[in-house]
Amino acid sequence: EQIEKGGYEHFMLKEIFEQPKSVHDTMRGRLLVDEGVIKMAGIWDHIEKFKNANRIIIIACGTSWHAGLIGEYLIEEYARIPVEVEYASEFRYRNPIITDKDVVIAISQSGETADTMAALKLAKEKGAFIYGICNVVDSSIARITDAGSYTHAGPEIGVASTKAFTAQLTILTLIAFKLGKHNGNLGNADFMSLIAELEAIPKRIEDVLSSTHELVQNIAKDFVNATNFLYLGRGYNYPAALEGALKLKEISYIHAEGYPAAEMKHGPIALIDENMPIVIIAPKRGHYDKIVSNVQEIKARKGKVIAVVNKGDTQVSAMADYVIEIPETSECFSPIVASVPLQLLAYYIAVYRGANVDQPRNLAKSVTVE
Ligand code: AGP
Questions:
Q1: Between helices 237-252 and 334-352, what is the axis angle to 10°?
Q2: Phi-psi region of 233 (alpha: psi -120 to 50; beta: other; left: phi over 0)
Q3: Tens digits of residue pLDDT in 304-333
Q4: pTM for the whole thing?
Q5: Is the shortest distance between the CB of 108 and ligand 1 below 6 Å?
Q6: What are phi and psi of 128, to 5 degrees?
């Protein structure tokens, strides 16, 4: 096992550090920047299905559902196809309206999640075209779908999903750009600049890992005894906030909630006092001014702010108690980059609390029962 961990203390840390490679591997052979092409046989062979789709329904659980939410932002922004994102467990039991004009995308690292599988079967029975985004090759979900794209993240052993999540985001980004280019909603110049930026994302992740690792480790020390955490973000980073909170709660057992930052005033603001740590994702591109006022509201109530900002940020940084810098990217890529320090934060808080990081209590890597 020590050999498999490659010198890291836990699989989770190894997998966090593998992300430059796993994201790169997921794009390899698909993203051909010089030719200005995204090659995805699963999409291309069924392009009429996507082109004529009334809507895309994404079904998933847990972290994969968070990736699905970001997929909604991506596909609606770049391909202008309506997207709905559903928890598989809710979808399967609520008698959903599904037609043969719907495309249903299931996202699952393991490809074995019982609820996702059952929801897919239902969609298939009702005539929808079903597409899989799985990490485990030849898994049950990969086998029953009409087509799909594998995330090439490699085996993920830690129960807390990390590299599978960023690989799922990579696939969803490729799908959104490919569909948008094909249906004319994403113009050639924008397409070219976005794919060039996407190609450089593994390098951005590498930079974030090296520039934030030690810092985040130190920040984590101050929150070992925290009992609650709030995670806030807007736009693309709202699901990134949900994912940051899920990571923390599943491995450290600290109660954490993710919220869209603007929803704070509709309830969670009541929780804020000097004992409430709040992680706020505040990149330059993405409603920055609105986030600035959210941070002002938090500081007025003495909340402890851990801000994830772009390099060179001044406004949010001046108010925050802790500042984690990430490189500036187009908004659609920011959840990939911002998730990395949040994974590290959850990891180190859990390690300092003496928790079993790779195998947290009560959790299984794949949930094959209801
Ligand atoms: C992620 O950290 C969790 N362990 C869990 O939410 C997981 O994402 C969920 O069970 C879905 O699994 P899947 O992607 O294998 O379907």
A1: 20
A2: beta
A3: 999 999 999 999 999 999 999 999 999 999
A4: 0.97
A5: yes
A6: -70, 155
